[in-house]
């Protein structure tokens, strides 16, 4: 995996900012409402106009196609967008029902790679292999979902369900770095803890660099890692 390095990032009302997040490192970002936390993540994800460069390991973002960059540097926005009708259409697994089983099951889930998940033949990349579908299954179960969640219409999802499923959808793309915008904002403590443990497992097993916007001082203390705050358009260590 690769670290993330921000070099002179200047966005609307923000910066210039320099920051290095090593591979496998977690850095929290906090700051008052409107201080620019989401702008920072969106600039790193290359979703907003800005100046400066971001490096993933030795690769500058300017040398990587935007869609590829956003797959490798995954943003979990505060409100994720869903484009297909069912949850399952957003994930590279399918629900399988066996004749001898009364209820549908996620095991064994069959890999059904939609276009964004396919790797072009012969492409040279150090992007890690797709996760085993059972990993996606494990994430879903760990985050409190029953096997039939893949058949759910996205219109029925509660805010917290959307947030948890958006995390699974993001991790299914095996990003090398994670940008998390208030990943547990809409969750009760128990589900918040589940999200924390999935993110921490992913970070430590995959060696992913994680930049996590969190308003929750308890969460920042509980998980640990470096903690920065945006003050006067700059990043400073949290006191
Ligand atoms: N497209 C835009 N046009 C104009 N101003 C914008 C735009 N996007 C963000 N801003 C402004 O930039 C500032 C920072 O916004 P940002 O969303 O990054 O805040 P934040 O720190 O994430 O706040 P919160 O904690 O409330 O989510 C805000 O004053 C916001 O109104």
Automatic annotation (TrEMBL):
Q: Which ranges carry the ABC transporter domain?
A: 4-239
Instruction: Indicate whether Nucleotide-binding appears among the record's keywords.
Output: yes
What SUPFAM superfamilies does the database record attribute to this sequence? P-loop containing nucleoside triphosphate hydrolases
Pfam families xrefs: ABC_tran
Q: GO molecular function: any one? A: ATP hydrolysis activity
Keywords from the UniProt entry: ATP-binding, Nucleotide-binding
Q: Does the keyword ATP-binding apply?
A: yes
Judging by the UniProt lineage, the source's domain of life is: Bacteria
Protein name (database record): ABC-type iron transport system FetAB ATPase subunit
Q: What is the lineage of its organism?
A: Bacteria, Pseudomonadati, Pseudomonadota, Gammaproteobacteria, Chromatiales
């Amino acid at each position: 995996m690769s670290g993330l390095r921000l070099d002179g990032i200047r966005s609307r009302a923000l910066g210039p900012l320099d920051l290095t997040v090593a591979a496998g490192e977690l850095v929290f970002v906090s700051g008052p409402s409107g201080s620019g936390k989401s702008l920072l993540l969106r600039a790193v994800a290359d979703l907003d106009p800005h100046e400066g460069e971001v490096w993933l390991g030795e690769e500058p973002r300017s040398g990587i196609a935007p869609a590829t960059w956003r797959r490798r540097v995954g943003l979990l926005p505060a409100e994720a967008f869903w484009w297909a009708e069912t949850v399952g259409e957003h994930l590279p697994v399918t629900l399988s029902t066996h004749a001898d089983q009364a209820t549908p099951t996620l095991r064994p889930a069959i890999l059904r790679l939609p276009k964004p998940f396919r790797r072009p033949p012969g492409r040279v990349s150090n992007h890690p292999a797709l996760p085993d579908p059972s990993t996606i299954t494990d994430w879903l179960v760990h985050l409190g979902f029953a096997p039939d969640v893949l058949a759910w219409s996205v219109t029925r999802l509660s805010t917290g369900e959307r947030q948890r499923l958006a995390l699974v959808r993001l991790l299914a793309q095996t990003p090398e770095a994670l940008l998390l915008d208030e990943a547990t904002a809409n969750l009760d403590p128990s589900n918040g803890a589940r999200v924390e443990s999935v993110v921490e497992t992913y970070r430590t097993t995959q060696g992913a660099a994680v930049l996590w916007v969190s308003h929750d001082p308890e969460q920042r203390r509980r998980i640990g890692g470096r903690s920065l705050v945006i003050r006067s358009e700059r990043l400073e260590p949290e006191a």
